[in-house]
Specification:
CATH class: Alpha Beta
Strand content: 15-25%
Helix content: 25-40%
Number of domains: 1
Number of strands: 5
Structural class: alpha+beta
Strand order of the largest sheet: 1-2-3-4-5
Radius of gyration: 20 Å
Number of helices: 6
């Protein structure tokens, strides 16, 4: 196995690896895929999502200043990738592992660890203050993988579906009439 920086010609193969995985394992999807329109609110592939993800991965390959895509290959065949980027929307620049995915036949062989190591080394070389990632809530294999490598859960993401009420039954009507809403519990 060899890790290298992705090239433009890798985008189609990376898209196939990603799309096949998302289709087979919707638990991979996190809020990032949902916000991009790649997955629906249940984590299933969204209509037109494959093309959106193809555009996303091409942008990351082309953005050498802020992002880096690493691929692993064996005998000339790309079989995994990691997408990392520097985010400056904080007190100090921080690193983000946007995606890490290994083709099914290569899992358990150290490919993911090697890709993660390459990505984190690149981020640290850019002077980031920390490295973060998101993972689908039911993607337990990935959670265990990252925890074994020193990552820890620090937050959860909540989504309000289109058309969902912000208020429990009964309180919505009070709110519509302008009545003051009192919390049911003084700790709320």
């Amino acid at each position: 196995m060899r890790c290298r920086v992705a090239k433009a010609v890798d985008a189609d193969r990376l898209t196939r690896i990603f799309w096949e995985h998302l289709t087979a394992r919707p638990e991979y999807a996190s809020h990032g895929e949902m916000q991009m329109g790649v997955a629906d609110a249940e984590g299933r592939p969204a209509a037109g999502g494959e093309g959106k993800w193809r555009g996303y991965i091409q942008e990351r390959i082309d953005d050498a200043d802020r992002a880096r895509v690493f691929v692993s290959e064996r005998e000339g065949e790309v079989d995994g990738f990691a997408v990392v980027e520097v985010d400056e929307d904080g007190d100090q620049p921080f690193g983000v592992v946007c995606d890490l995915l290994v083709a099914p036949g290569r899992r358990g062989e150290g490919v993911g660890g090697a890709l993660l190591e390459a990505g984190v080394a690149w981020l640290r070389g850019r002077g980031v203050s920390g490295v973060y990632l998101e993972s689908g809530i039911d993607n337990r294999d990935a959670h265990a993988f990252f925890e074994r490598r020193g990552f820890r859960e620090i937050s959860r993401v909540f989504a309000l579906s289109d058309g969902a009420s912000l208020f429990p039954e009964g309180l919505a009507e009070q709110h519509q009439h302008g009545e003051d809403l009192q919390p049911a519990n003084e700790h709320e």
